[in-house]
Design a protein that fits this description.
By secondary structure, this protein is α+β, with helices and mostly antiparallel strands. Helix content is 23%, strand content 29%. The protein is built from 8 helices and 17 strands.
């Protein structure tokens, strides 16, 4: 006999920008979203509701990781944990590794052996919360691919091994990631732009705005510009004249939502951010304007970059650079 532990059970701990319109069926949207609980017993199944697109998770049980794929469906589905479990206590962490723009899914809860117990993992003693905004680089797109970027399956796109997630983990920080592949400040490979998406519940300009009252990050990272540069070149267009103004307006809007946060304006990871003169010049002008008016604005430029989308080794190199720089910043001292 199995017992069902609904997603609304108070012992679940959630982290992420989640759709809570139905508390029995929270929708897991953005990459980096987490669900945690402790449970007992030798059986475990994850229960999902309707899915749009395709969603990949890393399922951690007692530190052992399994890949979970949820395909588009209107009907509920179940993932049966395939590994042997002892009769004792276990810790579950579900991490959404695929990005929001390719899929989201309702989480219904878990099924366990009848008569076993669940408990809360407890609140971790984390003083620091980090919010990352960006494009495919920040999402971790293609980072587990081989010699060629591929988009046929998102199983190799792993936000858990992005520079963003690695940086947050190294800093012992709570973590949210709102990034969309192909998206720019003015133009990009998708029709939406960052100013339309950064504060939305779903990655759609028509989506309701996210309620951020329960999420006030201490550090906000912003990494845009690669798509404005590469899309313009691919279309034989000039780099967009409105990039500087658009970037400044975007960061100012973020500042209004996160009035007490330290902002780190990032550049780099691929060719445009590292070598494109039009992008570098427009970005530097925007950064100068923002830093002149706001003492909590900072900037960081990655030295490491990749012609292809950064692979895991590239993300680790980028994270190492960013972590080393953060350790030198006075605003980080209160979290160490």
């Amino acid at each position: 006999m199995a017992q069902f532990i609904p997603a609304s059970d108070k012992n679940f701990r959630y982290e992420g920008r989640i759709d809570w319109a139905d508390t029995a069926r929270p929708v897991l949207i953005w990459q980096g979203t987490k669900v945690e609980i402790e449970f007992e017993g030798i059986e475990l199944s994850l229960c999902f509701g309707s899915c749009r697109g395709v969603v990949y998770f890393d399922l951690h049980v007692d530190g052992v990781v399994s890949l979970v794929e949820v395909k588009e469906a209107n009907a509920p589905c179940e993932f049966v944990y395939p590994k042997a479990l002892s009769a004792g206590a276990h810790r579950l962490l579900l991490f959404k590794r695929s990005e929001a723009d390719v899929g989201h899914v309702a989480f219904l809860g878990i099924e366990l052996l009848s008569g076993t117990n669940v408990s809360s993992p407890g609140k971790p003693p984390l003083k620091l919360a980090m919010q990352f905004f960006g494009d495919s680089i920040t999402a971790g797109a293609c980072n587990e691919d081989g010699a060629v970027d591929q988009w046929e399956t998102l199983a190799t796109h792993n936000n858990a091994l992005s520079y963003a997630a690695l940086t947050a983990k190294a800093c012992g920080a709570r973590y949210r990631n709102v990034a969309v592949s192909g998206m720019g400040v003015v133009v990009g490979y998708v029709p939406k732009v960052a100013g339309e998406i950064w504060n939305r519940l779903y990655p759609l300009p028509t989506s309701p705005k996210s309620d951020e009252r329960d999420w006030m990050p201490e550090v906000v990272f912003v990494n845009y510009g690669e798509n404005d540069d590469s899309f313009s070149k691919n279309q034989s267009m000039e780099f967009p004249d409105g990039f500087t103004d658009g970037y400044v307006a975007l960061v100012k809007a973020m500042r209004e939502t996160y009035p007490k946060a330290e902002f780190v304006l990032l550049r780099g990871g691929m060719f445009g951010g590292a070598r494109s003169e039009p992008l570098c010049s427009a970005w530097e002008t925007a950064v100068q304007q923002l830093e002149t008016r706001d003492s909590r604005m900072h900037h960081f430029i990655f030295l490491h970059w990749s012609d292809l989308h950064p692979r895991v080794s590239d993300h680790r190199a980028m994270a190492d650079e960013l972590i080393a720089w953060l350790k030198t910043q006075p605003f980080m001292h209160r979290f160490t």
